[in-house]
Amino acid sequence: MTTMMRLSTAMTFLVALTVSGQADEAAKTQAEKPAPQATASVPATDAAANAVKAGIEWLTYEEGLKKAKELKRPIVIDFTASWCGWCKRMDKETFADTKVIDYLNSNFVLVKVWGDSDKPTSHDGEVMSERNLTRVYGVRGFPTFWFLDSEGERIGPSPGYKKTVEFLPLVQYVAGSHYKTMSYENYLKSNTAGG
Fold first, then answer.
1. Radius of gyration of the chain from Cα atoms?
2. Is it the case that residue 15 has pLDDT exceeding 50?
3. pTM of the full predicted structure?
4. What's the pLDDT tens digit per position in 165-180?
5. Cα–Cα distance, 96 to 92 (Å, whole number)
6. In the chain, what are the domains?
7. What angle is formed at CA 25 by the lines to CA 23 and CA 27, rounded to 5 degrees?
C-alpha cells in the first residue's frame, strides 16, 4: 500500500505540475528567441553579483546520491542539455536568484545531469552515460527536474522552465515533505489562502 500511495502521489504531483505549467507554455513558445541583453547602464547589485559567485553547488549524480544520504537531504536533479535555451535561461535567472540559491543550498543536494553527454555515471550499479541516465528517468524535454528523497527514492518530476515565483513553492513543497500528505495543487491553495 505504501508503494501504491507513493506512486499515486508521484503521478498526482506530475499531473499538477504539468497542468500548472501549461498556462505559460504559449508564452514560452513566443519567447523562445533569446532574451535581450542587459545594457551597461543597468548595473547588477552587489548582492546579486555575490550570489552568482557563491552560486549553487552542483554535483554529479553519484556524488549527489552519496551526499544526500550523509546529509539526510532530498535531491534535485536538473536534467539539462548544452543546446537548451530554456536551461540557460533558468541558470541565468532562476538559479541566479539569491532566494533560490540560499533555499536550495540549505535544503537540498543539487545534481546536474547533461542529457546530451556521454560522460560515464553509475545508476543502480550499472555504468552508463549521462545521456542514458536521462532516458532511465524518462526525461523527454529540457529542463526537467526530478526530486528524490535522501535515500535516492524518486518523488516525482517537474518539466519545463520555471521562474523564481514558480520554482520556490515547488522546492518548498518537496523540502517540507508536503507531497506525502497533499497534492501540489492543494499545497499551493493552502499557501495562497494564508495556510
1. 17
2. no
3. 0.75
4. 999 999 999 999 999 9
5. 6
6. 2-20+57-192 (3.40.30.10)
7. 90
